[in-house]
Amino acid sequence: GNEYIIDLKLKVNISKAAQTDEVADTVNYAEVHRVIMTEMAVPSKLLEHAGGRIVEKLFQQFPTIEEIELRLSKRNPPMGADIESAGIELHCSRK
């Protein structure tokens, strides 16, 4: 029922895709978007929980992702302050 802003950076070795011009040789961003939309549809009390699930799923489903930077913000948060958004920022590396 709320609006969210997601900024995502993925560290991926793109050398093969740069040579072949084939989406199979890199991360398919349409599939990344699907993962994010699926996880954001799951009710959560905390942005930290939703962000953690997104990172976990991306690492599970895309083995070529080496690092993820994710910013997840809630627009117009109900906190009694006149601010555009409030959020979290995660920096994660594959274990």
Care to describe what's here?
This protein has 95 residues and is an alpha+beta fold. Helix content is 35%, strand content 31%. It contains 3 helices and 3 strands. A 3-stranded antiparallel beta sheet has the order 1-2-3, covered by helices on one side. Helix 2 packs antiparallel against helix 3. The N and C termini lie far apart (34 Å). The mean pLDDT is 93.
What characteristics describe this protein?
single chain; about 100 residues; alpha+beta; about 30% strand
User: Could you say which overall geometry the principal axes of the C-alpha atoms support?
Assistant: elongated
Pattern of helices and strands: EHHHEE
Q: Number of helical segments?
A: 3
Radius of gyration: 15 Å
Q: Report helical residue fraction.
A: 25-40%
Task: For the largest sheet, list the strands in their spatial order.
Answer: 1-2-3
Mean pLDDT: 93
Structural class: alpha+beta
Distance between the termini: 34 Å
How large is the share of residues in beta strands?
25-35%
- The unreliable regions are none
Q: Report the sheet with the most strands, covering strand number, pairing sense and barrel closure.
A: 3 strands, antiparallel
Q: List how many beta strands DSSP finds.
A: 3
